[in-house]
Structure formats: C-alpha cells, structure tokens
Amino acid sequence: MKKLGSRLVRILKPKPLRRRPRVTVVIPHYNYGQYLPVAVASALDQEGVDIEIIIVDDRSTDGSIEVARRLTAQDERITLVEHPENMRHIRTYNDGLSRATGDYVVLLSADDALTSNSLTRAVALMEAHPEVGLVYGAVEWFQGDLPPVKAAPVWWKIWPGEEWLRRSVRCGRNSIANPEVVMRRSVYEKTGGYDADFPHAADMYMWLQAASFADIGFVGGSRQAYYRDHGQNMHSTEFAGATDDMTQVRDVYERFFARDGARLPAASRWLERSKRSVAREALLRAALLESTGSSHSSAVALREFAQETCPQVVGSGAWRWTGLASRGAGLFSSRRLVRLVEGIRWKIRSRRQSAMGL
C-alpha cells in the first residue's frame, strides 16, 4: 500500500509532453464491424504519442472479422487477434491487455470512441506526475454519428489515492464510464486484470485497486471519450436486471475492503459507509423508476435490495422518498413531484461528474 502524504486535491495547469511515450489501445470486438472503423480512427487521432492498437475479435459471427482484417492490413500500427472460440468479454479484455507493449494502456469498446488528442492530454498528466496511475475525464454520450465536441481550456486534477477512495465510497456507484480511462501499464499489471467474478463491475473493482497504490488524475475542461448509447450496449442487454448493477457494486466494495483495501486505516468504517451509500443509491433509482412508471416490480426489488444491504436505511429520507414516488396520479401528485426532483437531481449529478470527476 502506498503511503500517502498530503490529502489535498490538487488543481494544476497542464504541461506539454517532453517525450513520445507509447500507448496501447486494446479494442475488444464482437459483431461490431459497423462501429469498428470509427473506434480505430479515433484511437489513431492522437498527437505526440506512439499508438499501438490491438483488436481482439471474440469469434464474431456476422462477418465483422473482415472489417477488422481490412483495417489491420491498412495500418502497421494495428494488430488483430482472432479467437478460435468465443471467450466472453472479461477474458477477451485480459487477453488483449496482456499483449500490450505500451507505457500506458487503454481499453476501448468497439462501439465507443476517443476524442481527438485525448490520449495526449491524459498521458501528459501521468508523464508529469509519476505518482498518478490512472487518468480519466468527461464522456460525451451519443447516438448515431460522432457529435462535435467544444474546445475548452484544459486543466488537471489529482487526488491522492486514499482521498479518491473515500469520495468513491460516498458515491455508492461506479463513477467512471470506461472508454475515457488511461492507465499506467505497470499499475494495470498490479491489479491482476479484470476480475471475472464481476462481469458488470470488474472495471470499478480495478479503479479501486489502482487507487490503493497510486494517485488518480482527471483531465478537466475537455471531453475525453465518446460513449455510444444504441440500446445494444452490454449493460442494456446482458445486465438488464434492476438489481444486478447495484448488487455487483456492493459486492465490489466488500471484496475490495476484504482484500486490497484491508490495510487502509479506515477500511471497516469505509465498508459500512459504502453499504449505506449503495443502499441510498438503490433507493434513488427506485424512486426514479416509480415516478416515471418504468417498472414497479424493479423499484420494489431495489427497495428490498437496499434494506438487505443496509437495514438502517429503512425509515430514512431516501426510503420515504421512494414511497412517495408510488403514490397519486393527479396534477399535484407526489409522483409528479418526485419525477420533477429526480430529473433535476440526475442532471446535476451528470454535469457535476463531467465537470469535477466525482
């Protein structure tokens, strides 16, 4: 465990790169041939760094492999790994990253993309601050073609790892989307790779691990990646159960504080705080579902999950708020009030996270 000195979060002015580091971008790929060229082109659109792209095709069945082969033949910086059988996403991630030769690594889903020079910005931060092991930034969600992103003055934020963990525990959720993350390869290797026990939250577990022995950086002012929302994302198809996400988030905290974070002075206290945070997050999601009429059964399941995770949450403000969301249908019903407030809350949360990282 790295001994952390100052707990102060630092806001810094960016510095230019002094050398040309190598970055490996691993693109796991399964039946996403229609999106793959955009992902690859975005990864190559980076100045001041040497790019290595490893496409890992997990036995595509729709002819997408031909797209990957064509892209590979066009640029010597691209390598294609073809799985003889489908290995599923976690093993595919780890396979691709195990082949990385760069100083820094990125896992980019084939349906997502990087913004121009996002790797340059992230790597510059880590080059200037060797204590930082992971850098992320704001994400632009989109559908269809890549939207333009506004140019903005760039600034850096650095959290001591322990401070980032403390704030993450208070969130009770995964605060990083994934395509915007750049990791120092040495830090990635210390995590042991993506954990197959958490098919929906292995990335979150890795972020916590990284923060246990390195500082965390954030590139502010500029979007660092694009996240495509097309209804077929893994979170929408394979993990659509109402409590799946929250259950894995809770289990990630429990695993982390039992293993990697066990030596933290506040480990037991932070674990209990994480359970309260996860339970509260589940209740707020339940309130949103109830108020919008999306799924009463899912909202009920989330309430039950919250009570199981942290019994003390029963009777709390969040618990009563969820109950209000299921009542009334008139013009001034409590459901309408909850829907209005929750809509504002989620917008504020999204903007705060994009602007500040946590």
From TrEMBL:
UniProt entry keywords in alphabetical sequence: Glycosyltransferase, Transferase
Top-level taxon of the source organism: Bacteria
GO molecular function: glycosyltransferase activity
Record keyword Transferase present: yes
InterPro entries: Glyco_trans_2-like, Glycosyltransf_2, Nucleotide-diphossugar_trans
Glycosyltransferase 2-like domain span: 24-156
SUPFAM superfamilies with a match to the protein in the record: Nucleotide-diphospho-sugar transferases
Family, per entry: Belongs to the glycosyltransferase 2 family.
Protein name: Glycosyltransferase
